Amino acid sequence: MKVLFVGDIVGNTGRSALKQVLPSLRSKYNPHIIIVNGENAAAGRGITAQIAREFFEWGVHGITMGNHTWDNKDIFEWIDEEPRIVRPANFPEAPGRGSALIKANGKTLGIVNLQGRTFLPPIDCPFRKADELVDALRKQTPCVLVDFHAEATSEKIAMGWYLDGRASIVVGTHTHVQTNDDTILPQGTAYLTDSGMVGSKEGVLGMERSAVEHRFLTQLPVRFTVDEGKWQFHGLLAELDDSTGKAKSLVKLRLTEDEWLLL
């Protein structure tokens, strides 16, 4: 099984990049299942039903979320009805679901979304929730992807080691900067501390930089807006053994709009 995971998609800039790049990635790599993180897809904060529908129309099979899951309040009206979207499973009580089985192209992938607790709200323990959900999914498929939406590098690395041999892929999201520690751990888990993002490379983590600079200079409240500059596209491609769920290969994906225009 080939799994394409795309990092945090930030606003209209990120959505436009995804729409442009995805057909070529599908043609080049022929992934069986495509998962994207959509928690910043709507103007940088949350997701809407319309955006989710667009992602699915473009060939995405599943969407993971994060700490901005609830920023668009209409999500409470439809998330229960969309089984292809998972929000952080370790929220104590929330609508929606924290794990799902994604079936496409004759393959079945379990997906889990978890949120870290270091420098983020102190919700339920992601490690104990991982035990519960990964073990349950493995009864239905050996191939399981965990999107760990967390701030601290140490917490993400700990989760990778904790799930080594149980999850097929543990990929970090949230910090929007792709890390250079892609590896296959000893028991067969493909690991990357942060997948990076899809959004403007000319802003600050996808947001317009002057507002961010003003915030740092003054410490006053500032409304952040999505930067409309040239985009960058980050993600990963992992090939899994269908029978064991262990990763056979892991490749980081990193592409800029300028590089794309030259292809």
In the CATH hierarchy, the architecture is 4-Layer Sandwich
Beta-strand content bin:
25-35%
Provide the helix percentage.
Answer: 25-40%
The CATH C-level class name: Alpha Beta
In total, the number of domains comes to: 1
Query: Which ranges are low-confidence, i.e. pLDDT below 50, for 5 or more consecutive residues?
Result: none
| Main pleated sheet | 8 strands, mixed
Helix-strand sequence: EEHEHEHEEEHEHEEEEHEEH
Annotation field: number of helices: 7
> If you compute it from the alpha carbons, what radius of gyration comes out, rounded to the nearest whole angstrom?
17 Å
Distance between the termini: 27 Å
In CATH terms, the superfamily is Metallo-dependent phosphatases
CATH fold descriptor: Purple Acid Phosphatase, chain A, domain 2
The quaternary state of the protein chains shown equals single chain
Shape: globular
Pfam families: YmdB
Keywords: Hydrolase, Iron, Metal-binding
GO molecular function: 2',3'-cyclic-nucleotide 3'-phosphodiesterase activity; metal ion binding
Binding site for Fe cation 2: 39, 67, 149, 174
